[in-house]
Design a protein that fits this description.
Layout: E1 4-9, E2 17-23, E3 28-33, E4 39-44, E5 57-67, E6 70-80
Antiparallel strand pairs: 1-4, 2-3, 2-5, 5-6
Length: about 80
């Protein structure tokens, strides 16, 4: 019943954010959409895009932020264990 909760603030961005979660082979596991609001809270429940629980392991999440001047992203690691 655990969740990954990503919270961050966006300033002067009107196009919102997106989080892509990949396994270590690079396969896209889940895409989560943010909102165009300043304060972002994006939750991942450990499920893939087909609503299936992902296997335990190491995953990469990439936060993509689109603005009028381009796209910025940051990538981090999250571990899934049962």
């Amino acid at each position: 019943n655990d969740e990954l909760i990503l919270t961050f603030d966006l300033l002067k961005v009107d196009m919102g954010s997106q989080v892509d979660i990949h396994d270590l082979s690079g396969r896209l596991v889940r895409t989560l959409k943010g909102s165009p609001e300043t304060q972002q809270e994006i939750r991942w429940d450990g499920r893939d895009n087909a609503a299936q629980v992902v296997p335990p392991g190491i995953y990469l999440y990439r936060i993509n932020v689109k603005a009028g001047v381009g796209t910025s992203s940051v990538t981090r690691i999250v571990n899934v264990a049962y």
